[in-house]
């Protein structure tokens, strides 16, 4: 039996005792993240939000098999938020439309959600009226049966059959009443329920998954009472798509007990908060660097290149890379780099190396003395640096794969690694 075939099917239930510790952990991570962000200025907060929204949009689309150009999305968001973007890439009309939906949702999270708003957002996802080459209904609830299937033609597997079209109006009225209401249920649980409930109704012919994730974010934003969104769940769902679809299918064939879904959702949100911490660290480190280097004379090209690497561009700083990214000659790149070395902005990773690479000097002081028990660990294909700062502060920073691998090989000194990822700790020294 499908979940929506049961009487009072939206009277979801769960085992509170199974959730308590997990919800407390997620709540602490949310509080810690916003605590760190309180030290950022308005512009830095905007940049942090822009980065989070970029990957929210990219990965939410990718879950549905739609690949968007990251640079185009980032440029569209930067333009709409009025912030500087180092690598300007003209976005397509489609990407501008998708970005507009997300910003509308985030900027107006406190407004009542309406059918008209949902229909407008869904239409924006499909400006041509087509999806995967087929014409679809846009800007209105679907008027036909909807089966969620996979597999090749003739060998399809039906995973879920959504409620009949004649039920959608009533089902969505109930959902919108609940969504716009206030109750004492934990915001994480409400966010998870909104996601499950919406995709189970499946009110539109296409775009339901992306809309469900937007609605989940809105409820989290309401609880955070913040105009800024610094974390998103889409990137983590995209990494575990198979499990995402498996657990949805299981719950949609269940008896209304959604404990397993809530646990999966909260765990996924916890990982998303870890990723957000990495973005915040990058921005804090960048801010710390420019505080130190504010009085140093540099060309516009040098500033743009430094900002590119400060924002986490995954590549070694070499004269070849510099020339390629800044579209200048190799001789010009060498002069740029040597000038920054003389000004103590860059330093060689391995002095005298045949093919030299360079690191940005965030803090001129050797900060290795403040760290103990430094380890590089790999978890779920992601590298982390763990350490103890000044004997009391636990540090756990996500590393770019290239940096971790270079450190392990001995191509990147520990001091340079700590300088890049942990300089922000020196702000309160």
CATH class of the largest domain: Mainly Alpha
What is the strand tally?
9
Poorly predicted spans: none
Structural class: mainly alpha
Salient structural properties:
3-stranded antiparallel β-sheet, two-stranded antiparallel ribbon, 429 residues, 2 domains, 16 helices, mainly alpha, single chain, Fic-like fold, Arc Repressor Mutant, subunit A, elongated
3D architecture notes:
With 429 residues, this protein is mostly helical. It has two domains: 280 residues, Orthogonal Bundle (Fic-like fold); 134 residues, Winged helix-like DNA-binding domain superfamily/Winged helix DNA-binding domain (Arc Repressor Mutant, subunit A, Orthogonal Bundle), CATH 1.10.10.10. It has 16 helices and nine strands. β1 and β2 form a beta hairpin. α3 crosses α4 and α7 packs antiparallel against α8. The longest helix is centred in the middle third of the chain and has 35 residues. It is elongated, with a radius of gyration of 24 Å.
């Amino acid at each position: 039996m499908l979940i929506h075939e049961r009487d009072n099917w939206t009277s979801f239930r769960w085992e509170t005792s199974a959730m308590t510790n997990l919800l407390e952990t997620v709540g602490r991570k949310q509080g810690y993240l916003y605590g760190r962000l309180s030290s950022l200025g308005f512009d830095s907060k905007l940049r942090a939000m822009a980065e989070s929204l970029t990957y929210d949009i990219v990965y939410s689309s990718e879950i549905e098999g739609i690949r968007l150009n990251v640079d185009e999305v980032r440029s569209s968001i930067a333009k709409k938020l009025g912030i500087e973007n180092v690598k300007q890439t003209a976005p397509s009309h489609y990407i501008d439309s998708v970005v507009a939906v997300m910003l509308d949702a985030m900027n107006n999270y406190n407004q009542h959600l309406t059918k008209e708003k949902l229909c407008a957002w869904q239409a924006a996802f499909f400006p041509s009226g087509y999806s995967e080459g087929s014409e679809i209904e846009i800007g209105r609830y679907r008027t036909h049966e909807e089966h969620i299937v996979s597999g090749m033609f003739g060998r399809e597997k039906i995973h879920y059959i959504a409620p009949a079209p004649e039920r959608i109006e009533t089902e969505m009225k109930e959902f919108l009443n609940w969504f716009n209401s206030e109750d004492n249920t934990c915001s994480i649980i409400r966010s998870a329920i909104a996601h499950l409930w919406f995709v189970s109704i499946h009110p539109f012919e296409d775009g339901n998954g992306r809309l469900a994730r937007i609605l989940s974010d809105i409820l989290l934003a309401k609880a955070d009472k913040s105009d800024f969104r610094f974390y998103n769940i889409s990137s983590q769902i995209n990494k575990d798509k198979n499990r995402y679809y498996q657990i949805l299918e299981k719950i949609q064939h269940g008896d209304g007990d959604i404990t397993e879904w809530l646990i999966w959702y909260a765990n996924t949100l916890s990982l998303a908060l870890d990723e957000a911490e990495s973005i915040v660290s990058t921005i804090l480190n960048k801010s710390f660097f420019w505080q130190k280097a504010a009085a140093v004379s540099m060309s516009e090209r040098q500033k743009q290149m430094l900002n590119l690497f400060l924002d986490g561009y995954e590549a070694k700083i070499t004269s070849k890379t510099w020339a390629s990214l800044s579209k200048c000659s190799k001789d010009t790149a060498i002069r740029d780099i040597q000038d920054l070395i003389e000004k103590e902005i860059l330093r060689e990773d391995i002095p005298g190396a045949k093919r030299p690479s360079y690191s940005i000097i965030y803090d001129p002081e050797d900060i290795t003395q403040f760290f103990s028990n430094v380890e590089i660990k790999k978890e779920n294909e992601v590298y982390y640096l763990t350490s103890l700062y000044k004997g009391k502060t636990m540090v756990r920073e996500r590393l770019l794969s290239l940096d971790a691998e270079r450190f392990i090989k001995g191509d990147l000194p520990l001091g340079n690694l700590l300088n890049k990822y942990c300089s922000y700790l020196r702000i309160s020294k």
